[in-house]
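Contributing new records

If you add data, match the layout below exactly. Sequence lines come first and carry their own label; structure lines follow with theirs. Keep one chain per record. Anything else will be rejected by the validation script.
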Amino acid sequence: MFREPLIIPVAGLATGIVLSSLTVFYKPELAIAAVLFCALALVSRWRRSRPFVIINLALAFVSLGALTAVLRAPPPAPQLEGSEGEILLLSGCVVQPPVLSADREQFVLELEPGARANVSLTVHEGDQPIRLLYGQRVEFDAKLRRPRNFGNPGAFDYVRYLARQQVYWTASASSSTPIRVLDGRCGSRVQAVVFGLRTAALERIERLYAGDDYAIAMLEAILIGEPGKLEKVWTDHFRRTGTFHALVISGMHIIVLAGTVLFLLRVCMVPEMIALLIAALGAWLYAAVSGWSAPVVRAAGGFSLFLIGRYMFRRGRTLNLLAAIALLYLAWDPGQLFDASFQLSFLCVASIGAFASPLTERALRRYRDSGRQLSEISRDFGLEPDAAEFRVELRLLAETVAAWTRVPLKWIMTAVQFGMRLLLWAAEMVLLSAVIQIALALPMALYFHRISLTGLTANMIVVPLMNLLVPVGFAALFTGWAPIAALTRLLLTMSEYAAGWHVQFEPARRIPDPPVWLALALTAALIWLAVAVRSRTRWIYPALLCALGSFAIMLWAPFPAEVARGTLELTVIDVGQGDGLMLTTPEGKILLIDAGGFPAFGRKKKPNLDIGEDVISPYLWTRRIQHADVIATTHAHEDHVGGLKALIANFHPSEIWTGTVAAESVESEALDTARKSGIRVLARKMGEAFDFGGAQFEVLAPAADHESTPRALNNDSLTLRVRFGEHSFLLTGDIEWPVEGMLLDSRLLGKTTVLKVAHHGSKTSSTDAFLDATQPQFALISAGYGNLFHHPHPDVLDRLEQHHARVLRTDQLGLITIRSDGHRLTVDTLADYERLRFTEPFQAW
């Protein structure tokens, strides 16, 4: 560890930043603590007490880390005059030019320094996209809103993500809205040149691959860092096989490009230091053109530090260099520590420096070196005994093959050397990939709920292909030559084929959130293993066994779902303008009802956000749910079944319950796939009554004679009543007043404890007569914040208030959970859930 002295300071700095996020510190006390610990370190150094020097320096950096986090805390969000959703006159500077994506054009507008808005213009058929350039001052009318997170545990903090880019609003308008370009320029001249280069590169890609939307979108993302045209389905194979990192612009791009530039310059006899300087400048230029993405900026900084080290004739140590980069970037922006990309980037490189390099050095590289110049016997005597023995075995193999085949021994020697190097290279790549998979297992499980098994071999194929694609792709951009562009397309196709081939062997399961004890155990085992490997002690194998054991448990995930037995629970998940419910029964059965989605509105392109994959599933994984007994769909509108395919794939239900299925719908396609997978699909109709998991279920709609239509209707909705003890829950889907009237005429309605209000609180439902019959104590409304339909309707809210129902809305409260033990009801919202999640692990520990 002392060969990398910067590890302790960066660990202390990171610890201080984490502590500052958990409690409140004041600047004076942190400054005093830092000075005090530094003084104690000096005293300990004077008294030659090395352990106390290390301890006090570590504590000093902890104090500095907390102080840095306080000093560099993000400012409060700026305020703008005007109410939410109001149409305002916006005026500002275009700081990110438009990116056209199917039926939508987007750009970033800086209203004031440090206050930006993401502008989205809907492009209608026949409209011409608006061409705006960086640095133009514009003025136009738009509807302004603040971004909002989904109110569920485990949800991605989208608001914080945008705020780190100084974006605090989203603005929407039509492409027919007149945008007035004002006199004068704004922004930076340097950035104007950079965006000019970026725009030229994007236009060149579109010309080279005209008509091939897949190639255009993928190459714009891989080479220039512009993901606006990517379809999620195009990257699915890469995500599932753990090779998605090869697609996004990262430090690997810098390494490949810098290495290519260095090679070309050295071939041209350019002195080493000048070549390194040119490569470093090129790395920073590429970071600028690719949009200053954080991984590329970090890699460019690392390459610059490497250049400084070479200039000062210092031997480069991976962990020390990595720690130096982390110190610089955390001191500049402490909030980076909580970014998934920062954690994954540094953990990946740290695992290579701490595990992969020492292990390959000890286990493989000496054998690779021993295979050189096999015919020179004198080289045997300078090697370690096992390496010399390996060299003799290779020579005997070559001589034996030469004797059998009568091929000249020199040729056989060359073939054996090449084959041996190829096998050792493959072994090194497998070891490297395995080390990275284990080291990144915890963040991959927490952030993406994936641990790829086929990634061990998929990365061996995809990463080299992508590493070759980057310089070849840039050569195609610079030259515009069709043959080079065709070679780039071929490399992309081969990568997709390799990833797609591996997908068929990848287990179709996801990883739920691991318990706290397992996360701590894996972290401790990896630290122990790193120390053991680098100090070459006999504790390597016990530490490796602990690390592998923790990894295997995380992969196996034998943890029971967090479901309370003896309780009927209804959870309304915040899915925006849609429905997504979970019902757990007293016997622990799990029923998912609807899958969220986005109203279609005739879009040409579906949003890349999949509510089933990106909103509902993460919440279920926070409760360690891996299997759903049943998934029920009320009807086939997009805001109810948009995420159905993802839920089926992630939670493998035994049965799917449906009402009336429209032929032309996403639901119909998903059900066909489910049937082929052996999942039982049951069409529920009025009059059915059955026990499921200790609760009594009744199907109230659709009627047995209700006929399906090609397109889904609200009145197709599956309506369920669930009873347990003294309480009943009425789940209505999107039924409207005609079905409510039918239920009243059929005398099927009665007093209800909990009502899931139909159609998100639309005025077409929840009539006075219906509420008179049901008399709900609680009315749950699933609606999107500031939705275009203005749900829930004021008339419905008035009617619910007149019937003395307590209204709970996801657009105001986020996730809502109601539990019944048969006698008492308890109600929890997102705030209650977060409080329990924060305190329970420590109480259990």
